[in-house]
């Protein structure tokens, strides 16, 4: 079994949620599971598509986090850059010191 040593976090506009989730589900060799949360987000470069988002100054986002092997995370990011090249999708990879289950 590969070492679980990083967390890949993806953040995208809610309109891209299903496409990103589909990509994760297509790669069970890299992604064993993930968590998804609905968040608000905004940046200076962001395009706000709806009038409500323009008034609020931020948009509804989805944050997906998955703990995984760092080599697999880099492969997944490279794959997503090819298949979903979109400036509306942000990502970061952070180290995980320990991962386990309580039971």
Using brief descriptors, characterize the structure shown.
single chain; 103 residues; alpha+beta; Alpha-Beta Plaits; four-stranded antiparallel sheet; 4 strands; 28% helix; 30% strand
Describe the structure.
The structure is a single chain. The chain has 103 residues and is of the alpha+beta class. 28% of the residues lie in helices and 30% in strands. It has one domain (6-95): 2-Layer Sandwich (Alpha-Beta Plaits), CATH 3.30.70. The chain contains 3 helices and 4 strands. It has a 4-stranded antiparallel β-sheet with strand order 2-3-1-4.
What is the general shape?
globular
User: How many domain units?
Assistant: 1
Number of helices: 3
Broad structural category: alpha+beta
Which CATH architecture is right? 2-Layer Sandwich
Query: How many strand elements?
Result: 4
- CATH topology category name: Alpha-Beta Plaits
In which range does the helix fraction lie?
Answer: 25-40%
- Can you summarize the main beta sheet? 4 strands, antiparallel
- Order of the strands making up the biggest sheet: 2-3-1-4
* CATH domain class name: Alpha Beta
The separation of the N and C termini measures 19 Å
Q: Stretches where pLDDT falls below 50 for ≥5 residues? A: none
What is the N-to-C succession of helices and strands? EHEHEHE
Give the percentage of residues in beta strands.
25-35%
Radius of gyration equals 15 Å
Report the mean per-residue pLDDT as an integer.
Answer: 89
């Amino acid at each position: 079994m590969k070492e679980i040593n990083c967390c890949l976090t993806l953040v995208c506009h809610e309109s891209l949620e299903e496409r990103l989730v589909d990509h994760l589900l297509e790669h069970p060799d890299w992604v064993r599971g993930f968590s998804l949360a609905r968040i608000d987000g905004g940046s200076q470069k962001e395009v706000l598509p709806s009038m409500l988002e323009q008034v609020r100054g931020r948009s509804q986002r989805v944050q997906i986090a998955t703990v995984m092997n760092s080599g697999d995370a880099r492969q997944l990011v490279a794959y997503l850059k090819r298949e979903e090249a979109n400036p509306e999708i942000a990502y970061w990879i952070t180290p995980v010191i320990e991962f386990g289950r309580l039971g």
